[in-house]
Structure prediction request, 306 residues.
Amino acid sequence: MSRPKVAVLVGPTAAGKTAVAVGLALNLGAEIVNADSLQVYRELDIGTAKPTLEERALVRHHLVDIVNPDEPYDAARYSRDARRAVADLVGRGVPPLVAGGTGLYIKALLHGLFSEGDVSPDTRARLRQELSTEGLAGLYERLGRVDPETARRLPPGDTYRILRALEVAASAGRPMSALLKEHRFRDSPYSVLKIGLNLPRQELYARIERRVDEMLAAGWLAEVEQLLRRYGAHIKPLKSLGYRHLIAYLQGDMGWDKALAQIKQDTRRYAKRQLTWFRGDPEVSWFHPEQSREMLALLEDFFGRR
Prediction:
């Protein structure tokens, strides 16, 4: 029996995923399954660049506005919810178009969650001691020998993931890349087409600057004030990019100019991390956001809609 077909649209923040996804879905007769970890929350509208009511009226979106801001939500729950949404679409003969920039959520949907196994406290303590004596560069070089595939995928400054990959290799006796491949093979319920949006760095950075300014002009600060009054600053979504900066401003911990500059700088950094994650996937076909005709042709061939 053939596996259900699922298309995935990925890319960095501000690349234009929402507009592209809506245009493609309209032409394809598809419905969109959200894969943005913040757009699942109600009341976080402006700062998450959530699809507008008009866009949602044009194309049905799934997994947008499904939980309250103070309700726990994680990749495991997303995997269950998204797989139910995909099953519903496939059952109705509607092409599923998953769109978003949260790589972990997309991985959880397509492959389930990978359990890295138990790491002994002794192994963890030893590696942290070696981090302080050898430095991160030395551990990264060691990872290149132990697990070259994972080392190529990770930035040399990613302390957490470098340590984690070394921990897993030491505990399992096998590289993390090999364990991941086995896991993906076991839990791969879909036939998948992956499309990525990419554009020149300066163009992306200009889009980020413009979007932050537009969100603030649309009332983002007032949105944060209301959320802060209703829930307090401790809830998980308010610790996210942009929201935490505006809270720091509202609480007097950061001046306005610094908060604005920090939002834009951290958003650029986040976009770079997203691209690093998605570029590590050789299955992604990359397009400029304006290449809608080429993307649609690929999707039509994939779903047999020509």
About this structure: The chain has two domains: 5-112+187-303, 121-183. The CA atoms of residues 132 and 239 lie 29 Å apart. The radius of gyration is 21 Å. The first helix runs from residue 17 to 28.
